[in-house]
């Protein structure tokens, strides 16, 4: 939608928001013209007659005819007028959109336009909610009740004054005629709906992290702003830069490496289960399958992250480390992952176990990290949290990446699994086979059930590897006898 306007002068460039709102208001004044504007009629709202009511379809038709644009763009422009509070709905006050039907709207009084000088602070909103609470006899809408409770705590020191002001305004409002009283109530409610919307609702008056209440204020450039800009430019100059040819080369290398493993670019072997309803792909790629596929084993060689992300690859890596008597680094990395993603209740216990197993002097599986990282980690374990082992875990990961990972790729362990890996033949299903597969479709195992099964297997393995207390076993046997 194109609105032809005069070019703003130099002073107007410093207030672009105010300039745009002024242009909206000039169009709004044309819409309210009695001769050439949108025709308004009297409508009954419940039992009260409301004057100067406009319909949504009439408003959109006027905008479309005036601006020579489509109905969709005219509706978007009308929605912008509603969102900024220049027009408010009478029936559904929460829905700040312009509907292309017989929905009823009214023009907002200029006193409540966004370009006015008065700033709606929390005290004004508290007085409005207190007045509405008196009128509704304590029955507010949920979002209003939440705002009311929050302001009651926030402004408790002057709440008596707020309630007194609300009672005086309520008495003054009762002296007006009922149509005028209903119109003013709708105008006030529409204003606060724009400036204090319900929580998690979008507002046109929001601008960045802070709400821009008064659009007439000039932005002042302080010394602190210049200082921050200077720091930003210094950091930008010192930041390492990469040539576009290098970055494009890295992107091409990444795509070349992963293109055969992308199901959108390459076909799944033996078949895509989402298309054929055949579960062979899921069976061959289970998390801890005994013999993996060649594609899966090939992906382990891409990076250490890919190897550790695959539980089957991690198990194979453990076998290699066990042969080299250097499995403490991977065990520490796994323990740090469990601490990071585990429950909060077990955090202190896990942190103490990790310290005694890997970090304490004379620990059974002591890891070799530099003194600075060790000091920071041990100090952080005094008040453990999820990321207390982040520095030590990163250090151990880099050690495995530089040394152990490349030795694993050259080891007989990896070469043996490459030879044993499966290379499934692609399925060729006829339409009749696809229909039969759909009929034989069975629900898969839920991920939570899989996780529970893995935890049970871990517990059994830990119990099997734990040392046996002969005295305790003999005492149990004696009791049974």
UniProtKB/TrEMBL annotation:
Gene3D superfamilies: 1.10.1240.60, Regulator of G-protein Signalling 4, domain 2, Transducin (heterotrimeric G protein), gamma chain, Winged helix-like DNA-binding domain superfamily/Winged helix DNA-binding domain. One of its GO terms (cellular component) is plasma membrane. The keyword Cell cycle does not apply. GO terms for biological process: G protein-coupled receptor signaling pathway; intracellular signal transduction; negative regulation of signal transduction; regulation of G protein-coupled receptor signaling pathway. Signal peptide: none annotated. Keywords: Signal transduction inhibitor. Residues 303-418 form the RGS domain. The keyword Ribosomal protein does not apply. One of its GO terms (molecular function) is GTPase activator activity. Residues 34-109 form the DEP domain. It comes from the Eukaryota. SUPFAM superfamilies: Regulator of G-protein signaling, RGS (SSF48097), Transducin (heterotrimeric G protein), gamma chain (SSF48670), Winged helix' DNA-binding domain (SSF46785). InterPro entries: DEP_dom (IPR000591), G-protein_gamma-like_dom (IPR015898), GGL_sf (IPR036284), RGS (IPR016137), RGS6/7/9/11 (IPR047016), RGS6/7/9/11_DHEX_sf (IPR047017), RGS_DHEX (IPR040759), RGS_sf (IPR036305). This is Regulator of G protein signaling 9a. It comes from Haplochromis burtoni.
């Amino acid at each position: 939608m194109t609105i032809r306007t005069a070019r703003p002068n130099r002073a107007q460039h410093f207030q672009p928001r105010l300039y745009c709102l002024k242009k909206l208001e000039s169009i709004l004044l044309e819409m309210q013209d009695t001769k050439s504007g949108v025709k308004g009629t009297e409508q009954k709202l419940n039992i009260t007659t409301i004057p100067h009511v406009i319909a949504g379809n009439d408003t959109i038709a006027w905008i479309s005819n005036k601006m020579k644009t489509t109905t969709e763009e005219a509706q978007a422009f009308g929605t912008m007028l509603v969102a900024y509070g220049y027009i408010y709905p009478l029936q559904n006050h929460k829905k700040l959109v312009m509907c292309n039907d017989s929905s009823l709207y009214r023009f907002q009084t200029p006193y409540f336009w966004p370009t006015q000088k008065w700033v709606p602070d929390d005290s004004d909103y508290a007085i409005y909610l207190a007045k509405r609470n008196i009128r509704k006899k304590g029955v507010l809408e949920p979002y209003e009740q939440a705002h009311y409770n929050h302001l009651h705590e926030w402004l408790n020191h002057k709440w008596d004054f707020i309630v007194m002001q609300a009672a005086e305004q309520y008495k003054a409002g009762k002296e007006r005629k009922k149509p005028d009283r209903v119109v003013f109530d709708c105008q006030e409610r529409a204003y606060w709906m724009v400036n204090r919307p319900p929580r998690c609702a979008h507002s046109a008056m929001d601008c960045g992290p802070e709400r821009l209440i008064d659009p007439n204020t000039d932005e002042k450039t302080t010394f602190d702003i210049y200082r921050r800009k200077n720091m930003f430019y210094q950091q930008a100059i010192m930041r390492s830069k990469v040539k576009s040819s290098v970055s494009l080369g890295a992107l091409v290398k990444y795509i070349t490496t992963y293109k055969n493993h992308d199901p959108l670019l390459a076909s799944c072997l033996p078949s895509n289960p989402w298309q054929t309803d055949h579960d062979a792909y899921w069976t061959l790629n289970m998390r801890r399958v005994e013999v993996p596929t060649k594609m899966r084993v090939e992906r382990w060689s891409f990076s250490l992250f890919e190897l550790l992300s695959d539980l089957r690859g991690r198990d194979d890596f453990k076998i290699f480390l066990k042969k080299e008597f250097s499995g403490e680094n991977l065990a520490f990395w796994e323990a740090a992952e469990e601490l990071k993603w585990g429950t909060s209740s077990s955090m202190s216990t896990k942190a103490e176990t990790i310290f005694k197993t890997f970090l304490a002097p004379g620990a059974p599986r002591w890891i070799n990290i530099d003194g600075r990282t060790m000091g920071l980690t041990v100090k952080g374990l005094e008040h453990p949290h999820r990321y207390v082992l982040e520095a030590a875990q990163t250090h151990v990961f880099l050690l495995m990446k530089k040394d152990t990972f490349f030795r694993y790729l050259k080891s007989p362990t990896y070469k043996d699994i490459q030879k044993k890996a499966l290379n499934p033949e692609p399925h060729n299903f006829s339409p009749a086979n696809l229909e039969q597969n759909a009929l034989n479709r069975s629900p898969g195992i839920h991920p939570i059930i899989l996780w529970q099964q893995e935890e049970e297997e871990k517990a059994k393995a830990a119990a099997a590897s734990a040392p046996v207390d002969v005295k305790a076993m003999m005492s149990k046997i004696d009791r049974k006898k």
